[in-house]
Every structure is written in C-alpha cells, then in structure tokens.
Amino acid sequence: MENQRKIFVENSVSQSNEYNMLMNLSRLSVSKHLVDEHFTLVWANAYYYELIGYPKEEYERLFENRPDKFYQNDPENWNILAAKVRDAIPKGGYQFIGRMRHKSGRMMWVRLSSIFTEEMLDGHRVSYTVMADVSELQQTLLEQSITYNNIPGFIAKFRVVENGFEFVEANEKFTQLFGRSDYLLDKQAQGKNRAVLAENHAAMRRGEPVNFVTQARDREGNNAWLQVSGECMDWEGDNPVYLCVYIDISELLEQRELQKQTNQRLEQLAFVDPVTSGRNRTSFEIDAGGAVRAALPGTYVLVWLDIQKFKVINDFFGVEMGDRVLRHCYETVEAHLENGEYVARLAADGFNLLLRTAGEKELEARLNRIAEDANNFEPFRERNYLLSFSAGIYPIDDPVLPLVKIQDRANIARKKSGGSEEHCLCTCLFYSEQDRLRSLREKEMENRMHDALGRDEFVVYLQPKQSLKKAAIGGAEALVRWRAPEGLIPPNDFIPLFEQNGFIVDLDLHVFEKVCAMLRKWLDNGLTPVPISVNMSRVHLADPQFLERYETIRRAYDVPPELLEIELTESLVFENPHLLVQFIERIRAHGYHCSIDDFGSGYSSLNLLKDMNVNVLKLDRVFFASREADNARERTVIVSVIDLAKKLSMGTVAEGVETTRQVEFLQQADCDMVQGYVFSRPVPLAEFEQMAFGREIAA
Predict the structure, then answer these.
(1) Residue 122 to residue 484: CA distance in whole angstroms
(2) Could you tell me which residues come within 8 angstroms of residue 124 by beta carbon, excluding any fewer than 6 positions away?
(3) Whole-angstrom Cα distance, residue 600 to residue 620?
(4) DSSP helix/strand/coil, 161
(5) 481 pLDDT exceeds 90?
C-alpha cells in the first residue's frame, strides 16, 4: 500500500509541475488529501509549508501528515472545518474561510477551496484543495465593520443633479488616492461603468441607498475597482447629497479571477483525459451515467471499444505516436456521436461509448464506419498499417444498474471469442444471457475462493517432463486444480478471474508452498527429486519485493533453490521487457531456475532473447500444428529455435506434444524435454510418485 501511495504522489507531482509553478508564483497553497477521518495529506506544493510555517520534514514528523493533529490545539476551529468538509462531500466540493494557527502562534484567516474527485487511494476519495492567506483582507473587513462610522476609509460627498454627479468634498485618503479634491464620479466612466452609474442615478435622485462596483483611475493612472456604498445625507433643493464610502476591492477581484482560473485548472485535472484532451472516466461517469439513469430501458447501449494489438504500436512506432493514435481515435469517435451520446478513454487503449440503441447489424455497421474513418491516419496510411478494433456491446435494459456494472458487462462481451466476420475492421460482440450466467458464476467463485483456499480445495497436479536423452522423467510442471464439493473446476474457469481480482497472488504462493513441502518430503525419504516448475502470474511483478515472500517459504522448508523453476509467460515480454529482464536477473540471483513459458504463442521478439538470461525456453504448442511432424516449414522453424536456444545456453522443452512422430522429430532436433499428452496428462501427486519413483512416498 505504501508503494501505491508513493506511485500516486510521484504521478501527482509529475502531472502538476506547470500548475504547481503557477500556484507558487501566485502565492497559493495546493494540496491533495484523502477524504478520511484525518483528511490525510498525500501531497502539497512548497507554498503549503511556507504558509503554515513548518518545513515539510518537520510537519511530517510532528503531525504525520494529519491535519487533525495540526489542529489539536485548536479543536473548535478543527470541528468547524471538519463539519464543513463532511457536509460538502455529497456536493463535490466546498469553499470556506476559517482560522488556522501559524507555527509562530499567530492566528491566520485562510480561504480553502476544494473539490472531491473520483480518484481513489487507500480506499478513500482524493480531494484537491487550494488555500490562500486572507488574514489581511479579513482583518480589514472586520475592522471596517467595527469602526465603520469612525474610520470609514475613502469618503466623498456628491450632489446628485439631474444630468449627473457634482463633487462636494472628500477626506484626505480620497484625495491621496485620486490626487485632487474635485473628482467627478462619472468623469472617466466608460463601458460597463457608465451603465452602472446610469442604473443607479435614478435611485439616487430618489434618495434611496445604493451599493455598486465601479472602476476608477488613481493619480498614477492605475485602474482600481471600488465597492461604492452611498446613502442620502441631505437635500439641497431637489438634489440629494450623498455620502459615498469606497472600498478598494481590486485585490479581492484579482484573487477571484485567480480562483476562477484555479478552479478551471482543477476541473481540467478532474475531468479531462491528458492524452486525448477529451473526457476522462470521471466526466463520462457523471454525464453518461446521468443520461442512462434518466432514460427509459432500451434507450442506450454501452460499447467497450479497444484498439487491437495497441502494444505493438507503442513498441514499433513509439509512445508519442501511440498517444497520437489515441487522440485521433477519440476525435474520430466524437465526430460520429449524436446529441445525447458520449465517449471517453477509460484504459490505455480502451474507450467507452454510450450510443443510442439500434439493431445489431446497424450497430456493427456504425462501429465499422468509425473504424474506417479511424484508419484515415496519415502516418499509418504511409506505412500501410491498419488499425483494427474489438467492441463489446451491452444493451442497457436496466437503467438503475450501476454504470460500473454496465461497463463490466460490455467488457465481458468484448473478451469473448467469435463475433463479426474477420475481415471487418471492428469485431463486434454482444452481451448475452450466457455471459450473465458466467458473470454470476464468477461472482460465486469470488465469494468462495478465500474459504476454498483455507479448506485446501486447491490441489497441485504434476505434469511430467520427459527427458529425450535419458528416456526418463526429467522434471515436472506444477498445475493447480480446484477440487470443489460439486466437482473439479477447470483452471480456465478460475485462473483468468483470479488474475483480474488479484487472488492469483495468494494462489501462486499456496502452490509454491505445496511444491516445497513435496520436495522436502522426497528429500527426507532419501530420494533424488526432479526439478519442479511453478507458474508465476504477472500480478506479482507489480510488487518489487514479491520474491521475498517466495524466499520465506523456501527457507522454511529448506529446499535447494535449484530444484525450483519459475515460469514466466511470453506475453510479459511485450508488456514491460526491461522490467521483466530485471526480475529474471533477481530470480536467477536467488538460485532459482527460470523459464519463458508459451514461447511462440504471441509476438516473440528474438532480439529480446539476448537480454533474457533464462535457463529454459518452452516452445508453445502452436509450433506443433502438424501431428505427423511432416510440415517442412514448421520443422525448419522448430529446428532454428532449438538451435538458437542451445547457442544461448538455454534448455528447451516442447509443450503440448501429442504424437510419437512429433517426439521422434524433436529427438532428432536435439530438444531436451517434452511435455504433453503423448507421455502423460497432469496427474495427482500420488500417481506422479508412482511414475517417477515406482511407489507412493509416505509423508
């Protein structure tokens, strides 16, 4: 969680440098807080600490980034502020002027302007707050309120005649400001000022109190905005004589303008996607969500639109070009929208569209027209590169359903196989009743998974790896099975779900511990174990310290690390190749063997093999489409990959091998091991021990 907070703060700082500079120059504090019981501070600009008098390190040490601790000596002021914030949560923001104690002990007046975003951290919403010291202004207002009759500030008397205003007299402060004692109230009035004076002239001729804002020019030629309050003090014939009190509000109006600009910038941060300059998730959820809730069932469909193989665009054309593609696609979709329809980028290359409902064929045709227009992207037309899309479509028949569930159902549809014809630029898939039932099944599995782990329902099966040189079992891969009360649940039903919700981390560690216990048992019985490989999900790589948890388990069972092989899938190569190389080095440094699984199933980069110092390359079953191993081109590719692996000092394992002819060919190609149904399916531990050791090994 601390790592997530660190990433959050770093991202906040990097995204707000220009904005932060503006606020510092404007002498405004900008900070981000969790909307929790402490209103915990997660980031602030330099002027935040300058304003309160505490350096950042001292503030963190004394108050632990908790504003409630900062206010601990001023509970009354804290309670007023806390109540204001709590009341404002449903409204999305607040403005507030209150008291705050400076480090020196001086009490300040501060103005707080805050908005609550949909951004989440540590389970709490994040608020953006702008704070300004308004002590001088507030004190002035208080003093004016108390001493209004004795020290009224700028004072002047005017005779309100039929065709305008005649100066009578003024105090010294007035003449100091304007440099003369015969100032004419309407002499320099132009534009809006002339209109304001004209509007109030009739009321003043009747002797009524007036209050208005006008612009004047001081003796140095500077413009000043003045709040004018006037009351009739006397009459000279038919002409009322007014006493006018002036308050210079130039600074206040400047602050208001700056606050307006600040609010606009905060609104942009909160509602605008930085890549497309269009709607972001928050804006979409507010406007599209509101449209759905206000509509009748069947009015809209939610489309989850993805650019296929977008990772390839970033890798081969660069991230900057990738961002240009995203902006172009957003603008293309937006150009096709009708009134009451919305689009936003929600994920890296994922867009959500709220469209008016139509027949399936009509929707498919419309989305393919959008895809065709998206391919009018000049840099790609020059390279003959086509953008293709996949779309999951959910007809919204229940407007009360939360938007996040509607989005999930559209995404579920998108991930299905099948869809419209392959030659289409946009593959369209619709949410079905089967999808709903599968979603319910997945929800049921989520509700049961923790208890199932505690009840040991997740068991380890082993699939042997046959050494072609020794004609004996040379290793095995540990595979998890869910032995539920109602029967065995296939891995394809629960592994993708657990990768999405993060439970795969706990499950992987459970399998690893079972394997360590199994190896320890074999060692204690005087056997020579074969190495066992375990799969490691990509979810682990989000935690830089993930390997420590594996090491704790291994050391507890005192298993030599060379008996354990960690398998990483080939798809990770393109997700973050540089990070993957670092993790492989760390895995090897701890003594584990490491392999790349499913090699050849995706977009393998042979160039990256030189950087990935793995022990084993596992050739995916896609290499072995020919059951008789009689496809010449296929054989050439397999021989070349095996030869390359040998030259890079990597072992090779062929996965998914099903026929003896394939085995014979792989033996000739000098492949090290074979894993597949030709030798054995994945089997329970006892059955594997019979195969490997000739007997079941007692615990």
Answers:
(1) 33
(2) 34, 35, 36, 40
(3) 6
(4) strand
(5) yes
Q: Give me the helices (H) in 477-612, please.
A: 491-501, 504-524, 546-557, 571-575, 577-589, 606-609
- Which residues are registered as beta bridge partners of 344? 352
pLDDT band for 421, please (50, 70, 90 cuts).
low
pTM value is 0.51
Alpha-helical (H) ranges within 53-119 are 56-63, 67-70, 75-88
DSSP state letter for 374: H
**Residue 640 to residue 620: CA distance in whole angstroms:** 15
**For the segment 260-308, what is each residue's pLDDT rounded down to a tens digit?**
666 666 666 677 888 998 988 888 999 999 999 999 999 999 999 999 8
d(CA 371, CA 278): 19
3-state secondary structure of 143: helix
**pLDDT: is 599 or 82 the higher one?**
82
Q: What is the pLDDT of residue 175?
A: 72
For the range 309-315, what are the long-range contacts, defined as Cβ-Cβ under 8 Å and sequence gap of 24 or more? 309/388, 309/603, 310/348, 310/349, 311/574, 311/575, 312/574, 312/603, 315/574
Q: Are strands 651-655 and 673-675 parallel, antiparallel or unpaired?
A: parallel
pLDDT of 606: 65
pLDDT single digits (tens) 196-255? 888 889 999 999 999 888 777 666 667 777 888 888 888 888 999 988 888 777 777 667
**Cα separations (Å) of 192 from 156, 213, 215, 352?**
22, 10, 9, 46
Length of the chain: 699
Q: How would you classify residue 196: left for phi > 0, otherwise alpha for psi between -120 and 50, otherwise beta?
A: alpha
CB 103 within 8 A of CB 54: yes
Per-chain mean pLDDT for the chain: 84
What local confidence, expressed as pLDDT, does residue 9 receive?
A: 46
- Residue 623 has which token pair? 């290499």
Per-residue pLDDT tens over the stretch 71-121: 999 999 999 999 999 999 888 899 989 989 999 988 888 999 999 988 889
Q: Are 676 and 656 in contact (CB under 8 A)?
A: yes
- So what's the pLDDT on residue 213? 83
CA distances from 98 to 34, 81, 101, 137, 369 (A): 20, 7, 10, 13, 56
Q: Which residues contact 390 (CB under 8 A, 6 or more apart)?
A: 305, 306, 308, 414, 419, 426, 427, 429
Q: What is the percent of the chain where pLDDT is above 70?
A: 85
Instruction: Say which amino acid occupies 516.
Output: C
User: Other C-beta atoms within 10 Å of 496: how many?
Assistant: 12
Are the beta carbons of 641 and 672 closer than 8 angstroms?
no
Could you give the strand order of the β-sheet that contains 342-345, starting from the edge strand earlier in sequence?
342-345, 350-356, 300-307, 389-395, 426-430
Question: Which position has the token pair 């038919």?
Answer: 238
Q: DSSP alpha helices (H): ranges in 16-55?
A: 17-25, 46-52
Strand partners, 352: 304, 344
CA–CA separation, 488 and 134 (whole Å): 68
pLDDT band, residue 150 (cuts 50/70/90): very low
How far is 504 from 497, CA to CA, in rounded Å? 9
